[in-house]
Amino acid sequence: MRTPLFVANWKMNQTATEADGFFRTFPGSLRDVVPARAHVALAPQAIQLAQAAAALKGTSVGVAAQNCGQTAWGAYTGENSPVALHALGVQWVILGHSERRWVYHEDSHLIQARMKAALEAGLAPILCVGERLVDRKEGKTFTVLEEQLAILKGVVEGALDRFVLAYEPVWAIGTGETASPQQAQEAHAFIRQWMHDRFAAAASESIRILYGGSAKPDNAAALMAQKDVDGLLVGGASLNPMAFAELVRNGVRSQA
Ligand code: PGA
Protein backbone atom coordinates (compact mmCIF):
# COMPACT_ATOMS: atom_id res chain seq x y z
CA MET A 1 0.00 0.00 0.00
CA ARG A 2 1.46 3.35 -1.05
CA THR A 3 0.60 6.25 1.27
CA PRO A 4 -0.67 9.11 -0.94
CA LEU A 5 1.52 12.20 -1.09
CA PHE A 6 0.26 15.71 -1.87
CA VAL A 7 2.79 18.46 -2.55
CA ALA A 8 1.98 22.16 -2.83
CA ASN A 9 4.31 23.75 -5.37
CA TRP A 10 3.94 27.47 -4.73
CA LYS A 11 6.43 28.40 -7.45
CA MET A 12 7.26 32.16 -7.31
CA ASN A 13 4.22 33.18 -5.25
CA GLN A 14 3.25 34.31 -1.71
CA THR A 15 4.75 37.03 0.50
CA ALA A 16 6.19 36.10 3.89
CA THR A 17 3.00 37.41 5.53
CA GLU A 18 0.73 35.32 3.29
CA ALA A 19 2.92 32.27 3.86
CA ASP A 20 2.80 32.82 7.61
CA GLY A 21 -1.00 32.74 7.64
CA PHE A 22 -0.98 29.55 5.57
CA PHE A 23 1.53 27.80 7.83
CA ARG A 24 -0.48 28.68 10.94
CA THR A 25 -3.89 27.50 9.72
CA PHE A 26 -3.18 24.68 7.28
CA PRO A 27 -1.80 21.78 9.41
CA GLY A 28 -4.71 21.92 11.87
CA SER A 29 -7.26 21.74 9.07
CA LEU A 30 -6.00 18.29 8.02
CA ARG A 31 -5.26 16.78 11.44
CA ASP A 32 -7.70 13.88 10.92
CA VAL A 33 -6.13 12.91 7.57
CA VAL A 34 -2.38 13.60 7.85
CA PRO A 35 -0.23 11.59 8.47
CA ALA A 36 -2.52 8.58 9.03
CA ARG A 37 -3.98 8.53 5.52
CA ALA A 38 -1.73 10.83 3.51
CA HIS A 39 1.57 12.68 3.53
CA VAL A 40 1.58 16.39 2.72
CA ALA A 41 4.43 18.81 1.99
CA LEU A 42 4.58 22.50 1.13
CA ALA A 43 7.17 23.86 -1.31
CA PRO A 44 7.42 27.63 -0.84
CA GLN A 45 10.01 29.90 -2.48
CA ALA A 46 13.56 29.36 -1.20
CA ILE A 47 13.40 32.64 0.76
CA GLN A 48 10.56 31.18 2.85
CA LEU A 49 12.01 27.73 3.54
CA ALA A 50 13.47 28.68 6.94
CA GLN A 51 10.17 30.27 7.91
CA ALA A 52 8.31 27.13 6.73
CA ALA A 53 10.65 24.75 8.56
CA ALA A 54 10.25 26.70 11.81
CA ALA A 55 6.47 27.10 11.53
CA LEU A 56 5.76 23.49 10.50
CA LYS A 57 8.16 21.85 12.96
CA GLY A 58 6.23 19.42 15.14
CA THR A 59 3.29 19.29 12.70
CA SER A 60 2.63 16.46 10.25
CA VAL A 61 3.16 18.73 7.26
CA GLY A 62 6.59 18.50 5.62
CA VAL A 63 8.69 21.07 3.79
CA ALA A 64 9.91 20.72 0.21
CA ALA A 65 12.34 22.86 -1.78
CA GLN A 66 11.58 23.70 -5.42
CA ASN A 67 15.12 22.87 -6.55
CA CYS A 68 18.62 22.37 -5.09
CA GLY A 69 22.25 22.86 -6.07
CA GLN A 70 24.16 20.18 -7.97
CA THR A 71 26.92 19.77 -5.38
CA ALA A 72 27.03 20.00 -1.60
CA TRP A 73 28.71 23.43 -1.56
CA GLY A 74 30.57 25.74 -3.88
CA ALA A 75 30.72 28.77 -6.10
CA TYR A 76 27.19 28.57 -7.58
CA THR A 77 25.64 32.02 -7.23
CA GLY A 78 21.89 31.88 -6.76
CA GLU A 79 21.71 28.18 -5.87
CA ASN A 80 20.77 26.51 -2.57
CA SER A 81 23.00 23.85 -1.02
CA PRO A 82 21.19 20.51 -0.55
CA VAL A 83 23.18 20.02 2.67
CA ALA A 84 22.03 23.38 4.01
CA LEU A 85 18.44 22.61 2.98
CA HIS A 86 18.52 19.31 4.84
CA ALA A 87 20.05 20.96 7.91
CA LEU A 88 17.18 23.46 7.88
CA GLY A 89 14.61 20.67 8.16
CA VAL A 90 13.65 20.40 4.48
CA GLN A 91 12.77 16.78 3.64
CA TRP A 92 11.87 16.83 -0.05
CA VAL A 93 13.13 18.55 -3.17
CA ILE A 94 11.33 18.94 -6.51
CA LEU A 95 13.78 18.33 -9.37
CA GLY A 96 13.48 18.57 -13.15
CA HIS A 97 10.25 20.56 -13.06
CA SER A 98 9.23 21.50 -16.60
CA GLU A 99 9.65 25.21 -15.78
CA ARG A 100 13.28 24.42 -14.87
CA ARG A 101 13.73 22.34 -18.02
CA TRP A 102 12.05 24.72 -20.49
CA VAL A 103 12.43 28.21 -19.02
CA TYR A 104 15.89 27.76 -17.48
CA HIS A 105 17.20 25.12 -19.91
CA GLU A 106 18.17 22.59 -17.24
CA ASP A 107 19.27 19.47 -19.10
CA SER A 108 19.35 15.81 -18.02
CA HIS A 109 22.99 16.02 -17.04
CA LEU A 110 22.38 18.90 -14.61
CA ILE A 111 19.17 17.38 -13.22
CA GLN A 112 21.02 14.11 -12.60
CA ALA A 113 23.78 15.96 -10.73
CA ARG A 114 21.19 17.76 -8.59
CA MET A 115 19.53 14.41 -7.87
CA LYS A 116 22.79 12.80 -6.76
CA ALA A 117 23.63 15.76 -4.54
CA ALA A 118 20.12 15.73 -3.04
CA LEU A 119 20.33 12.03 -2.22
CA GLU A 120 23.79 12.39 -0.70
CA ALA A 121 22.51 15.23 1.49
CA GLY A 122 19.63 13.07 2.77
CA LEU A 123 16.82 14.81 0.86
CA ALA A 124 14.02 12.90 -0.87
CA PRO A 125 13.90 13.91 -4.56
CA ILE A 126 10.61 14.33 -6.41
CA LEU A 127 11.72 13.94 -10.03
CA CYS A 128 9.31 15.47 -12.56
CA VAL A 129 8.93 14.04 -16.05
CA GLY A 130 6.43 14.87 -18.75
CA GLU A 131 5.91 15.46 -22.45
CA ARG A 132 5.06 18.70 -24.28
CA LEU A 133 1.94 19.02 -26.45
CA VAL A 134 4.03 18.64 -29.61
CA ASP A 135 5.51 15.37 -28.28
CA ARG A 136 2.04 14.01 -27.52
CA LYS A 137 0.69 15.02 -30.93
CA GLU A 138 3.60 13.25 -32.59
CA GLY A 139 3.01 10.09 -30.54
CA LYS A 140 6.29 10.53 -28.67
CA THR A 141 4.97 10.66 -25.08
CA PHE A 142 6.56 7.39 -23.97
CA THR A 143 9.84 8.11 -25.79
CA VAL A 144 10.14 11.43 -23.93
CA LEU A 145 9.31 9.81 -20.58
CA GLU A 146 11.93 7.12 -21.21
CA GLU A 147 14.57 9.73 -22.05
CA GLN A 148 13.81 11.71 -18.91
CA LEU A 149 13.72 8.63 -16.67
CA ALA A 150 17.06 7.39 -18.01
CA ILE A 151 18.94 9.61 -15.52
CA LEU A 152 17.79 7.31 -12.71
CA LYS A 153 19.90 4.41 -13.95
CA GLY A 154 22.85 3.73 -11.70
CA VAL A 155 22.03 6.70 -9.43
CA VAL A 156 19.14 5.78 -7.22
CA GLU A 157 19.58 2.02 -6.79
CA GLY A 158 19.95 2.06 -3.00
CA ALA A 159 17.66 5.03 -2.41
CA LEU A 160 14.43 4.13 -4.17
CA ASP A 161 12.52 4.02 -0.89
CA ARG A 162 13.19 7.77 -0.57
CA PHE A 163 12.41 8.55 -4.15
CA VAL A 164 9.23 10.00 -5.65
CA LEU A 165 8.35 10.49 -9.32
CA ALA A 166 5.90 13.03 -10.71
CA TYR A 167 4.25 12.78 -14.11
CA GLU A 168 3.55 16.34 -15.23
CA PRO A 169 2.46 16.71 -18.86
CA VAL A 170 3.75 20.17 -19.82
CA TRP A 171 0.54 20.99 -21.72
CA ALA A 172 -1.47 20.57 -18.50
CA ILE A 173 0.65 22.74 -16.22
CA GLY A 174 -0.96 26.04 -15.31
CA THR A 175 -3.26 25.81 -18.34
CA GLY A 176 -6.45 24.65 -16.64
CA GLU A 177 -6.40 21.67 -19.01
CA THR A 178 -5.99 18.63 -16.78
CA ALA A 179 -4.97 15.25 -18.23
CA SER A 180 -7.95 12.92 -18.14
CA PRO A 181 -7.75 10.25 -15.43
CA GLN A 182 -7.21 7.70 -18.25
CA GLN A 183 -4.35 9.71 -19.79
CA ALA A 184 -2.74 10.03 -16.36
CA GLN A 185 -3.16 6.32 -15.58
CA GLU A 186 -1.69 5.31 -18.96
CA ALA A 187 1.45 7.39 -18.37
CA HIS A 188 1.77 6.31 -14.72
CA ALA A 189 1.44 2.63 -15.67
CA PHE A 190 4.14 3.12 -18.31
CA ILE A 191 6.46 4.74 -15.74
CA ARG A 192 5.88 1.97 -13.19
CA GLN A 193 6.55 -0.69 -15.83
CA TRP A 194 9.75 1.13 -16.82
CA MET A 195 10.84 1.11 -13.17
CA HIS A 196 9.91 -2.57 -12.89
CA ASP A 197 12.08 -3.48 -15.89
CA ARG A 198 15.13 -1.70 -14.51
CA PHE A 199 14.93 -1.99 -10.75
CA ALA A 200 13.75 -4.57 -8.23
CA ALA A 201 10.07 -5.42 -8.66
CA ALA A 202 9.34 -4.49 -5.04
CA ALA A 203 10.79 -1.03 -5.56
CA SER A 204 8.62 -0.40 -8.61
CA GLU A 205 5.56 -1.39 -6.61
CA SER A 206 6.37 0.82 -3.64
CA ILE A 207 7.54 3.97 -5.46
CA ARG A 208 5.00 6.80 -5.43
CA ILE A 209 4.14 8.40 -8.76
CA LEU A 210 2.38 11.77 -8.41
CA TYR A 211 0.32 13.49 -11.09
CA GLY A 212 0.75 17.22 -11.70
CA GLY A 213 -0.94 19.62 -14.14
CA SER A 214 -4.07 21.63 -13.23
CA ALA A 215 -5.00 19.32 -10.36
CA LYS A 216 -7.89 20.93 -8.46
CA PRO A 217 -10.29 20.11 -5.63
CA ASP A 218 -12.91 18.94 -8.12
CA ASN A 219 -10.72 16.59 -10.17
CA ALA A 220 -8.53 15.23 -7.36
CA ALA A 221 -10.80 12.28 -6.58
CA ALA A 222 -11.03 11.04 -10.19
CA LEU A 223 -7.26 11.29 -10.64
CA MET A 224 -6.50 9.62 -7.31
CA ALA A 225 -8.94 6.79 -8.08
CA GLN A 226 -6.51 5.59 -10.77
CA LYS A 227 -4.50 2.52 -9.79
CA ASP A 228 -1.06 4.03 -10.39
CA VAL A 229 -1.72 7.63 -9.30
CA ASP A 230 -0.28 7.91 -5.78
CA GLY A 231 -0.57 11.61 -5.10
CA LEU A 232 -0.73 15.07 -6.64
CA LEU A 233 1.82 17.83 -7.25
CA VAL A 234 -0.27 20.98 -7.20
CA GLY A 235 0.56 24.49 -8.37
CA GLY A 236 -2.25 27.04 -8.70
CA ALA A 237 -4.77 25.21 -6.50
CA SER A 238 -2.27 24.98 -3.64
CA LEU A 239 -1.99 28.72 -3.01
CA ASN A 240 -5.13 28.88 -0.93
CA PRO A 241 -5.04 26.78 2.28
CA MET A 242 -8.74 25.94 2.15
CA ALA A 243 -8.65 24.87 -1.52
CA PHE A 244 -5.54 22.76 -1.00
CA ALA A 245 -6.98 21.09 2.12
CA GLU A 246 -10.16 20.31 0.17
CA LEU A 247 -8.09 18.87 -2.68
CA VAL A 248 -6.19 16.60 -0.25
CA ARG A 249 -9.42 15.51 1.41
CA ASN A 250 -11.11 14.69 -1.91
CA GLY A 251 -8.05 12.80 -3.10
CA VAL A 252 -7.80 10.75 0.09
CA ARG A 253 -11.50 9.96 0.09
CA SER A 254 -11.22 8.22 -3.29
CA GLN A 255 -8.62 5.86 -1.81
CA ALA A 256 -11.03 4.31 0.70
P1 PGA B 1 -0.51 23.62 -11.81
O1 PGA B 1 1.07 23.34 -11.60
O2 PGA B 1 -1.23 22.80 -10.77
O3 PGA B 1 -0.68 25.10 -11.59
O4 PGA B 1 -0.85 23.19 -13.18
C1 PGA B 1 1.56 22.06 -11.28
C2 PGA B 1 3.06 22.05 -11.24
O5 PGA B 1 3.68 22.76 -12.06
O6 PGA B 1 3.68 21.38 -10.41
pLDDT averaged residue by residue: 96
Query: From the alpha-carbon coordinates, what is the Rg to the nearest angstrom?
Result: 17 Å
Low-confidence stretches: none
For the largest sheet, list the strands in their spatial order.
Answer: 1-2-3-4-5-6-7-8
Largest sheet: 8 strands, parallel, barrel
Heteromolecules bound: 2-phosphoglycolic acid
How much helicity do the residues have?
40-55%
Secondary structure category = alpha/beta
Give structural notes.
The protein is an alpha/beta fold and about 260 residues long. The protein is built from eleven helices and eight strands. Strands 1-2-3-4-5-6-7-8 form an eight-stranded parallel beta barrel, surrounded by five helices. Helix 10 (about 220-225) links the parallel strand 7 (about 210) and strand 8. The longest helix is centred in the C-terminal third of the chain and has 18 residues, at about 180-200. It is globular, with a radius of gyration of 17 Å. The N and C termini lie close together (about 10 Å). The mean pLDDT is about 95. Bound molecules: 2-phosphoglycolic acid. 2-phosphoglycolic acid binds near residues 214, 234 and 235. 2-phosphoglycolic acid (PGA) binds next to strand 8.
